[in-house]
Amino acid sequence: MQVYNLEEQNSILNKFISELRDVSIQTDRMRFRKNIERIGEIMAYELSKNLNYKEVSVNTPLGISKIQLPEEEIVICSILRAGLPLHTGLLNYFDTAENTYISAYRHYTSETEFEIKVEYLASPSLEGKTLILADPMLATGQSFVNVLNALEPMGKPKKIHLVSVIGSQPGIEFMDKHFPEDTKLWIATIDEKLNEHGYIVPGLGDAGDLCFGMKLQH
Question: What gap in Å lies between CA 178 and CA 69, rounded to an integer?
Answer without folding.
Answer: 32
